[in-house]
Write a structure and sequence with these properties.
Length: 97
């Protein structure tokens, strides 16, 4: 069965979408699996082929969707300091807002 791709999320370890990056298209409970825990500095959230109005992501500061969180709708976020969330992301879910 084909995977449903609602959003394409790219996490970068430098400001302004630079540096090492990881691309996610589904929930991930532990960024340790992709060697990116507490490294996200900038993020792009782009609609995928199965995007629905209201799709967004929630980034969590803890593994397994725990701790502080922020919600990002589709867009380009060049500096997570704007959300007081620099180098904190440890897990992510695709949600509806």
């Amino acid at each position: 069965m084909a995977q449903t791709v609602r959003l394409v999320v790219t996490l970068y370890d430098k400001f302004n979408f630079l540096g090492t990056f990881r691309v996610l298209v589904s929930d991930l409970a532990d960024f340790g699996f992709i060697e990116f825990i507490d490294r996200a500095t900038s993020v792009s959230v782009v609609p995928g082929p199965n995007f629905r109005v209201g799709d967004a992501i929630r980034l969590w500061s803890g593994r397994n969707f725990t701790g502080r969180s922020i919600v990002l709708t589709p867009g380009f976020y060049n500096d997570l300091r704007d959300f007081n969330f620099l180098d904190e992301a440890a897990s992510m879910r695709i949600i509806r807002v």
